[in-house]
Amino acid sequence: MNNLVVLDFGSNSVRFSINQITGKNDFKEILRRKATTRLAEGMGLAKGEKRLTQGAIKRTMTAVADFKKIYQQYSDYQVVGIATAAVREAVNRQELLDQVTRLTGCRLQVLSADQETYFDFLAVTNSLSIKDCLIFDIGGGSCELAWVAAGNFQVGVSLPFGAVSLTEQFAAKDLTAANLFAMQRFLQEQFHNLPWLRQAVKLPLVLLGGCNRSVARIKRTEINLQPIDSFHGFKVTTADFQRIYQQLLALSNQQRKEVPGMEALRSDIILAGMTPVVLLQQQSSSPRVIFSESGAREGFIYHQLQE
At 259, which CATH number? Predict the structure, then answer.
């Protein structure tokens, strides 16, 4: 097997990559694609349980079928897959898992919260020259937060909120002042329950996730830094990140879509994706953010190669 095809089922989008194995513990990504499927959309609307909607499953399987047409053009490949919070928490997840297996032959590995956090750590520490940081991965349905000291994994946690779920919970598509305050109060309580955060202060935040990628593109567009989509290791001060946040807060959803660098399909969830970062910056006195293009999918590949 020379090519490892990885399917990655997130709460907001499904992605796939084709990775050429170049050594015992090394690989080169040769192709990457993404489809916004909003798998977690509407999950919290059923009382007492979280359930994937039929529309979300259909959108996701359409994307997988499109991906299959692409990777079948390659030879000597193996298909593996991971799924995160939306699938992990859904009572009807088996329906999606079975459909994926029938279409691709791949049995998805549903990552535990701990695995997802650790794979983020593997991805960041294997691809960025950084020894001390907080890693913050904001997904659609959950956030993973890890403290790294001297290059070692200290502690990590998966938090039960994400850009999609916060948008639904606090009507954040067009935030009112009251809903913004309520969301901030909710997030402050979540961070207050992590006593180890009081020790992890004045560290850079390494940011992962689609909303954070949009912020990186907006900033790179502002300063005309090309290519806009290449931002692994790109640094932005906390003050600049919060300036962009404040500017987006003042805009309607339609106006946010027109911001240069903004991914239009994230304009409705980006405020809910950025607010946790701003609250964490305030709590930890973080001086800057560093954007990472590598996340749980790449960490999973490193783990597979080590195995």
Answer: 3.30.420.150
Q: 306 lies in a domain?
A: no
Q: If pLDDT is split at 50, 70 and 90, which confidence band does 45 have?
A: low
Burial of 265 (0-12, 13-18, 19+ CB in 10 A): middle
301 domain-assigned: no
The pTM of this model reads 0.89
**pLDDT attached to residue 2:** 87
Same domain, 22 and 69: yes
DSSP per-residue string spanning 65-129: HHHHHHHTTSSSEEEEEEE-HHHHH-TTHHHHHHHHHHHHS---EE--HHHHHHHHHHHHHHHS-
Name which of 33, 3, 28 is nearest 16 in CA terms: 33
Give the whole-angstrom CA distance, residue 285 versus residue 243.
16
Edge-to-edge, what's the strand order for the sheet holding 235-237?
152-159, 143-149, 133-138, 205-208, 288-291, 235-237
> Are residue 176 and residue 233 in the same domain, yes or no?
yes
Domain that holds residue 76: 3-110
Q: What angle do CA 90, 96, 102 make, to 5 degrees?
A: 160
Q: Percentages helix, strand, coil for the chain, rounded to the nearest 5?
A: 45, 25, 30
